[in-house]
Amino acid sequence: MTDAQLHIVTGSDDNYVPGVMVLIASAHWHNPGARFTVLDLGISAENRARIDRLAARLDCRIDRIEISDSIFAAIPVRRAHLTRSTYLRLLIPELMPEAERVVYMDCDMVVTGDLTPLATMDLGAAPVAAVACPGPDKRELAATGTQRGEYVNAGLLVMNLPVLRRDGFAARCLELLSDPAHPLLSEDQSALNIAYRGQMLYLPGRFNVYANEATYPSAEDLPDQISVLHYVVSMKPWLWSVPFGEVWQFHANRIADLMPPRKRSFRHYRTRAEMYRRNAFGLALGKKKHWRRIALRRAIRQGFVADYLRAQAARAN
């Protein structure tokens, strides 16, 4: 027996509120019966009010659960583009003791299609269902004892909450994260892969498509179906122009009067400048991978983005 309604849970500190807003707006656009919960790790009062106004605008349910920012203080974050809000998904089974199933989604995602299958699929005894990473880091495969095609990305998880509660999901993952003898570059994602190796269900790739041209060797490798785009690593569309970014911007424009102002830190500018420098040198030296990325960006625009924008604009009118 599962919750019939699609229930999407995401988490954020104050830095990722633009992502939260657009994730909810896009998910509701394509799945108008969905409800939402935001795990709040220090969202400001001003931005909490924005989320409340979004719920009223969309006429949907958005719950918010406040989490103390001290709860993960002892756990390191090794990747520069992440904050401790990445660990919020570990708390979901205990924070929602009455729920049987939720779909956890990172707040740097945008929904482009129907997510009903995630609410209705048979999980059986599997703790989670997720999409295998298209190009996992070899160091993480070694650290987790998994193979390519087995290591999942934790950005979207269909969570079987009774099973996770029974297994002490958070405690298991936090124990792995606290072990200095086995540092995990991808933190709780890799802890999840260790804890449930061989027990997870695998979702079709369309439910977690990386919005990063570096993932795809050529235009022929681009996905032909996309239900969820994931702006991984530093490719955040509320900061910069990125591949597939126009899809995110379409939904941001629909709620533009509610959105927080764009904030860029010195680190953001430094990262972007370094990216431009590398690309410029690569193109000047005729390196194939840099020219390939330009071709891929063009294929992304022509092969998915343009059609999506036309279809949604027609629907909006």
Automatic annotation (TrEMBL):
InterPro entries in UniProt: Glyco_trans_8, Glycosyltrans_8_dom-fam, Nucleotide-diphossugar_trans
One GO molecular-function entry: glycosyltransferase activity
Gene3D superfamilies named in the record: Spore Coat Polysaccharide Biosynthesis Protein SpsA, Chain A (3.90.550.10)
Protein's organism: Paracoccus sulfuroxidans
Lineage: Bacteria, Pseudomonadati, Pseudomonadota, Alphaproteobacteria, Rhodobacterales
Cross-referenced PANTHER family: GLYCOSYLTRANSFERASE 8 DOMAIN-CONTAINING PROTEIN, LIPOPOLYSACCHARIDE 1,3-GALACTOSYLTRANSFERASE
Keyword Ribosomal protein tagged: no
Coiled-coil stretches noted in the UniProt entry, renumbered to this chain: none
Entries under SUPFAM superfamilies matching the protein: Nucleotide-diphospho-sugar transferases
Source species, domain of life: Bacteria
Keywords: Glycosyltransferase, Metal-binding, Transferase
Keyword Mitochondrion in annotation: no
Protein name: Lipopolysaccharide biosynthesis glycosyltransferase
